[in-house]
Amino acid sequence: MALLGVPLSKIAKESGNSDLLINTVALGAVTAVLGGNLTILNNLIAEEFGSKGEEVVKVNVSAAEQGFKHITENYKKNLRAFLSPSDSVSNFVPYMAVDGNESVALGAISAGLQFAAIYPMSPVSNILAVLAENQEKFGYIYKQPEDELSAINMSIGASYAGARSMTATSGGGFCLMTEGYGLAGMTETPLVIIEGMRPGPATGLPTWSDQGDLQMILNAHQGDFPRIVLAAGDAKEAFELTMQAFNLADKYQTPVVLIIDKNICENSQSFPLYDFAGYKVDRGRFSTEKVENYKRYELTADGISQRTVPGAGNFFVANSDEHDEEGYSTEDPEIRIKMMEKRMNKLKVCKKEDMQKPQLYGPENADVTIVSWGSNKGTILQALKELENVNYVHINWLSPFPSEALSEMLSKSKYILNVECNYTGQMAKLIRENTQIKIDENFLKYDGRQIFPEEIIDAVNKIRSKK
Q: Which residue ranges does the record assign to the Pyruvate:ferredoxin oxidoreductase core domain (predicted)?
């Protein structure tokens, strides 16, 4: 460890005769210590202070350069490497600091969002803040309704009218959305729901994190209907899965829920700039033209019928009762069976065509396999750096569930450790339900705090001590 002295006040006064420049001098010095590029820093300063005039930019650039120069000239032997102002920036990879809420909003906008109705509730409130601020720029509509019931029903109505729509809430708000959740399933209306997890029950710990909503999302509402449920492991996954959720909702004409726990929602992480250009919008079987002998709920081999919009001349009843192919209510048992199988068959098709396998980190064969989901990803990956012969299976898809792929991965492990932030081990139960694999050991944390790498390492070491 070396102490690098920098006369901040002296350099600030020499650069612009003001102590206000001390922070900029320090920024230049820190950039040199971290091996940063002065040219890039100067560009950022010009961007930040450009609106304040050329002279302000000039003195701040000078201050940063002098702070940078003081370090590189006086402490060069203490630095591993540094880049001079003349060094090329051709290999520079720009990073951004972004949290899960911002990533969801960016993903929705990139996916062609047209309507969003969100009632504020931690930890997802910043999604609505980003969407509200940018609606005129990107041409979608954001509405803040009076409650979560209105939020989901407005979003369903917008989707019925043909718009790509979404809503977002936390566990308590989702409870209020349950009836609308089932309505979207029965009427086969595309809908994206973002569910930010925090500790319950009731108000619980509203500013902390948890993973206790999994079973609720998978089983909410009476009766069976197809639901696609995804879970992000970090902000980048939240961005990518949000975009995917819109295509899945349109293709399979059913609600898609993306679960993100509070640790992802509100914690910033640094990532290379997201890929906004590689996404292709897929509206599925969707017609804005008149179709002869139109049947909204036509029985098809894959369960997916052609959607339409009001005004196209295609008439049907959007009916929450059981219905026939045109939407008329019926209690006929044979029609009920056909319609139920039609709807549920979409999950089978989704599992075959779109469902992604769990991600495997570490060696393919290991003594101990850690299985987990959500924000535990970063902690576990950090712990893996200190562990030998241990791998990690990260699960993104919760419904439909990747039973076969997960079974194959776990069958190669001698010992399985499930890690999650809830009291009952909800992921372990889901794995047992879908694969018949019994988890050997659970590490469960439910105090609202994040899991730390040391805790993972300790849990693995305890397993090994039992052998």
A: 366-456
**Cβ-based neighbour number of residue 182 at 10 Å:** 19
Q: What is the pTM of this model?
A: 0.88
Nearest residue to 245 (alpha-carbon basis) of 234, 261, 229, 233: 229
With cut-offs at 50, 70 and 90, classify the pLDDT of residue 85. very low
Alpha helices in 206-332 (DSSP H): 214-219, 235-252, 262-265
Alpha-carbon span 91 to 313, nearest angstrom: 56
Nearest to 157 by CA among 132, 188, 189: 189
Q: Which token pair is 21?
A: 């420049």
User: Helix (H, G, I), strand (E, B), or coil: what is residue 139?
Assistant: coil
301 Cβ contact partners less than 8 Å away, ≥ 6 residues apart: none
- Measured distance CA(340)–CA(347) in Å, rounded: 12
- The CA distance from 211 to 373, in Å, is 9
For strand 415-420 and strand 228-231, is the pairing parallel, antiparallel, or unpaired?
unpaired
Backbone φ and ψ of 203, nearest 5°: -70, -30
Q: Tens of pLDDT along 278-301?
A: 899 999 999 999 999 999 999 999
Tokens 């940078």: give the residue.
Answer: 68
